[in-house]
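[step 3/7] fold_predict: job queued, chain A
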Amino acid sequence: MSTDPADPAAAEEPPTPGPQPEVSARAEGEPGAAPSDPANASGEAGSGDGGPGAESSVSGPAEVPDGEAAAEAADPEAAHAGEAGSGDGGPGAEPSGSGGGGVGESPAGPTADADAAKPALSEAAAELAAQKVERERIARRKAERQGPVEAGAKLSGKAADLLAAVRAVESGEKPSAVYFDEAPTAPRKAAAAPAPAPRTPAPTAAAAAPPPPAVGDVDAVRAVLARAGAPEALAVQAATALGEGAAEQLTEDPWRLLAVAGVRPAQADGFARALLGPEAGPGDERRSGALVGWLLAQAALKGHTALEAPVLEKALAQYGVPDPAAALEQSIGDGSVLVFHEPLGPPVADDEEQPVRVLVGLEGCALAEESLADGLARLANTFQEPADWDKGATGPAAELIRAVAGHGLVTHTGGEAARIEPLALLAAAREFGLRACLATHTPAGGAVTVAGLLAGAEGPGRDADGQFALDLLIVLDAPQLDVETAAALVESVPDGARLVLSGDPGVLGSAGPGRVFADILVARACPQVVSRTPDPGPLGELVSGIGIGELNQVDAPGKEVVIVPVRDAGEAVHRTVQLVSESVPRAFGIPADSVQVITPGHGGSAGTRALNAALKERLNPGPGRFGGFDPGDRVVHVPSPGRALPARVVSADADGLHLDASGTRIVVPKERVESQVRHGWAVTAHQAVGERWPAVVVVLPGDAADALSRDWVYTAFGRAARHLSVVHGVDQALPRAVAEVLPKPRTTRLTGLLQALVAAARQQPE
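[step 4/7] structure written:
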């Protein structure tokens, strides 16, 4: 490693955007509300942020929750600096938690102006609509299963009470009040689950954009908001989120305002007090029910598909709910949330009590996770005899080719250099005459995007049954798959086809709920091929060491790795601009447009906003006449949460902002530019996942120390192909993060579900 001892002058700090208006000034400090929530200007916006419109919540700049679920339940409004680890998938997603810490704050949703006008069906809308259709098809298939599966015959005591409560909920009865008391905290084990039912595919309907709310509904909601002193700009969002009769819903239950993205409990409390007066107490059943759903939604934004009941009860208590257990029981009885039990440890004798852990989750995540487990188990048990692919099983991909020849589901792990192996598999499969397809999360030569494949805009299309017309699907960067996307993908893989999930398990995880790739690896339900292809050179050695918790000083004779120490954030901004515009192009012949800056968060004096302002002034100065952008600006386009595309501004007209994304022209309607486009000279590590650049400058200002973790450093450093400069202002926090700060855990059910399904299938007689 080299150290650059130059002493640059501190750069002037660019201004950052100001806070957004609050829903109600009376919201803060209301009885029953959580402690005041200082906005973290240096943190990254919540999971699913990914775009400029999500950087700040309705009450101001979005805070970045972090930490373990239990810790956040104890202080659910606590702000945390930095980008917050592995919640984001793909180069544009910006999660709020590094794998999710439990419950926390939501990102800001679309602006009122953005929702007021709906453009023609876009790629993002088509993708979301296609996924919705897939979800509906999955739900129909679930409903068609005949007869209940007997389970729990050996349970007794608290486990029996729990099972009885679950069945009471399913039958419409009110559940027992005892099963959340003293929930076990033993280590998690795989849960027993029934064998999958026969799969009945159905055709996929054409995607359609959701209709905008009626003008009358918006006006009625606007009147209710005005009566309570809330910003009328929320009317479109509220009418969209609540649907028909939104004004009546808000009048009867003001806490329904929590369904609007970016609205926090303290703000909803102020809104309710303005409408209901003294009746709006912290123990109101309407408030408790809304809080249960809101907390689970925030947990999903951080990657959880469910929360343990004691964690959720603790969070409710922090928000002033007098009887959290009763509130949770009421929500389960109403059917607004689902409860699950997972046996802990091996089965016990008939006269012993089976330890269980109690999980609570929202229906959407639960349905997706169960459907995903069903689909993966179906693929894992597809082939009894391997195909004869020996003639193609040569070179570094030989092991992968042999594994795929005999199995319907295979995982493949490795670093950047290992990507040649799934590419070799693709070529071999096509030589065998198979219909093979390679899918990535970002545009790449010879591949389709996952979003385009699901939307039907790219790839082989679908057959009469709504399945992909292919024999082999290879998905790269599999750690970026969330449960809903993965479920839609797996459900569309036809019987008799093969699925290969390939990725680097050390990078930051998905933006959405779940940890699909990691759960599949833990379940060991299919062959796992570990690449032996090492990443070459000093950069490969450095990143490989980080992956095992070691920050080594590597020998870099060609200055492949350079450390640039800085004293403060102002100096960090100045040195970054200097590196991008002068030093790297001069020393390595890499143009400034091929140098990418990565920093932990959006806010703060050395976050993406400040760095992009300084880099634009140096590299492409202009008045920003197109909504803050000029032709030639590097940008990140975020058509949907968790998905981003690097692009460049071409022009603008009445249709919107015209972008060029790797040769593909994109038009962003002018009302959506603010929420979907951000300058892209500097990005976060979550936005950078899945991409590589010839040169990367990683900026680590002093206030980013708490945001660092091993997976963040691994991801950021691994984006460089030829040269890495580290603008270093965190002292010993960097080696400490690599050695000690692991990705935050996510609470999910996929591992247990998948293990049980595969085991049950293998026990069935042939």
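[step 5/7] annotate
Residues 658 and 667 are 5 Å apart (CA to CA).
The longest helix spans residues 123-143.
exit 0
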